[in-house]
Amino acid sequence: MTDNQHPVLRDSSGRYGDRKSLELLMRSVLASVPDAMIVINDTGQIMAFSAAAERLFGYDAREIAGKNVSILMENNHRKHHDQYIDNYLSTGEKQIIGIGRIVEAKLADGSVIPVELKIGEADIDGEKIFTGYIRDISEIQANALRLNEMQVELANFSRLSAVGTMASAMAHELNQPLTAVANYLEAARDLLENADADTLAFIQEALDAAANQSIRAGQIVRRLRDYVSRGELDMRPVKLPLLIEDASSLAKVGIEGPLARVISRVPETFPVVLADRLQLRQVIVNLVRNAIEALSSTDNPQIWISAKVEGDLAIVTVEDNGPGFSGSEEASPFDAFNSTKPGGMGLGLSICQTIMDAHGTKIEYAPSPRGGAAFEFSLRLDTGAS
């Protein structure tokens, strides 16, 4: 390559610099950039390693140059990293580039820490290079985890308090009719020992009264059930992309071991929907978490979340490339207490269906064309949104 073919740099005064100037500039950037910065080629080999990266990972830039960047990754991400690059170069689909995400990084001493990773790309002399910016978020994540634990504890306390109050009220209200039923039946039993025509009339009255009191007890139970299942919906405009990002992060909390990659294909410009934010988030958390658990033994596990508009509805699909639903043909994945997971209660999908029913829409299951499971639910668009 001749000097005329070298990339050039023009400064504010209009002067030009050759490749050597660019290299000097690059060294200056690598020495001063505050976050760890790593440059790799399209085969994953490390081309540049900033001073901040040396401090974070514990490697010297000279000793790590030329090695595959997967050396800095936890085993699960290491196994799939080169495949991600190959997928992008062959399909052009950006699953990582331009998207900030949380991953685990492996340091020189073997320890693993959570980091925020952002990746950019460039084309130099017809070759692709990728630049990664890495920030240690151990402290941030620890604080977030503690806050989440406190919120869970508070929610559990509130739920237990509500359940205790409800149980106490229910026991008090049921006590009277059930006691009356027992008394009427005991009286009828005693009268049967010396039954004559007049006594039989009293027995009939006692049995009628017992039946009425049992109906009253049933009505109390039904009112309680209706109160619990009704739940008031707080219907408000909701931006799906933000909610999906939030729910996908929550779905991963507390899961140990390898995690599937969650890919959201819902653009930021997607129309606003009308929903109860908390309950809709619970639906997405349940679906994503179920998918993550189902993909625990799948190579290159991935979950896709997409959305489209059909008339006045938004159709949201959560699908994966796992084993799919393994229940019997007669059983529905939405049936309560129907679980294919060891130790599962089989209530998650049933709750999802109840929530969508309350929204006046529906949720359905079908095998995914990708080989796994696909759950599709609908939401009403917010026609009042600008």
Average pLDDT metric:
77
Name the overall outline.
elongated
Helix share bin: 40-55%
Helical stretch tally: 9
C-alpha-based Rg, rounded: 31 Å
Strand content range: 15-25%
Task: Quickly give the structural class.
Answer: alpha+beta
Low-confidence stretches: 1-17, 342-346
The sequence of SSEs as H and E is: EEHEEHHHEEEHHEHEEHEEHEE
Largest beta sheet, briefly? 7 strands, mixed
Task: Count all strands and give the number.
Answer: 14
End-to-end separation: 56 Å
Task: Give an account of the 3D structure.
This protein is of the alpha+beta class. The chain has helices at residues 19-32, 51-57, 61-64, 75-91, 138-191, 197-230, 240-252, 277-294, 348-358; strands at 9-10, 16-17, 36-41, 46-49, 101-106, 112-124, 127-136, 235-238, 261-264, 273-276, 302-310, 313-320, 363-367, 373-381. The strands form three sheets. Strands 8, 9, 10, 11, 12, 13 and 14 form a seven-stranded mixed beta sheet that branches. A five-stranded antiparallel beta sheet has the order 4-3-7-6-5. A two-stranded antiparallel sheet has the order 1-2. Helix 5 runs antiparallel to helix 6. It is elongated. The protein starts with 8 loop residues before the first strand and ends in a 5-residue tail after the last strand.
